Amino acid sequence: MSLTVYAPASMGNVGVGFDLLGAALAPIDGSLLGDRVTIAAAASGVSLAQTGAWAHKLPENPQDNIVYQCAEFFLTALSKEYLEALGKAEEGVALTLEKNLPVGSGLGSSASSVVAALYALNEHFDRPYNEQALLELMGEFEGKISGSVHYDNVAPCYLGGMQLMLNVPGTVCEAIPSFKEWYWVVAYPGISLSTAMMRKLMPDQYDKSVTIDFGRYLSAFVHASYQQNAKLAISVLKDVLAEPYRAAAIPGYDNARVALADLGMLTTGISGSGPTLFSITDDLATANAAKTWLEQHYLTEVGGFAHVCRLDEQGTRRVD
């Protein structure tokens, strides 16, 4: 008996909330923009098969894949007594990763694989972890592979919607209201950028006025979200920490931002550390025009794509 889990793409930062805000994405055409993991019982050990549009970009040795490592990590975390009680102490797992998100895209590719894998493992082993504990496990593993724990992709990918990172005892994050009328146009040009490299472009210290602006814009955006004041939210959806230092490293980004504004898009920003960009409007015709422009001018390599999206309110779920 197998089960399959889908974990959506996500935008870290959402421009205004560096490392503190994230949102899950759902293309309005109904396509699934995210990774899928299928799990089934096996005689022993861990095995992994790799399929999907971006499988060719993954390590050839399955043991080097983060989904394989997720399984080892999860099984190590489970107690022998728990596995014996389930009757699965000697049982292994066979995993299949359908890799549908490009690596280094700014769409939470690694988070999607990690979340799908750990969710699938938790389901397969009769849910030993509750929602909060599983989220913390996801963050812990994501931190192992990225060097530090950041939930702004993991949390929305798992829980859906727009998530504000709290990181207080017992609560990693909380959902904040989203604007149902907004269309999020996202475009991935086809190139990959290292998150570590893009973080290095940012300064180690900021001027006090910049940090005040960061706090002001983020708090105003959260306030506007609860008040459902879309005009205020758009006016403060500004990235003062990362974009000024990253924009030049993303080919065509500055030109796209100007062109999208000319088309009537309300604001444009960098998804995660790029190169994917997001652009917002409350008009579907404008969103489609922006998608067309991006497909013609921003997508530069084979594999690039653009989607008109809403936020994915469901998050990770079984699709078998």
From TrEMBL:
GHMP kinase N-terminal domain: residues covered: 65-161
GO terms for cellular component: cytoplasm
Designated name of the protein: Homoserine kinase
Biological process per Gene Ontology, one example term: threonine biosynthetic process
Residues annotated as binding ATP: P102, V103, G104, S105, G106, L107, G108, S109, S110, A111, S112
Coiled-coil regions, chain positions: none
Function statement: Catalyzes the ATP-dependent phosphorylation of L-homoserine to L-homoserine phosphate.
Intracellular or extracellular location(s): Cytoplasm
EC number: 2.7.1.39
Pathway: Amino-acid biosynthesis; L-threonine biosynthesis; L-threonine from L-aspartate: step 4/5
Chain ranges of the GHMP kinase C-terminal domain: 243-292
Protein family per UniProt: Belongs to the GHMP kinase family. Homoserine kinase subfamily.
GO function term, MF aspect, one: homoserine kinase activity
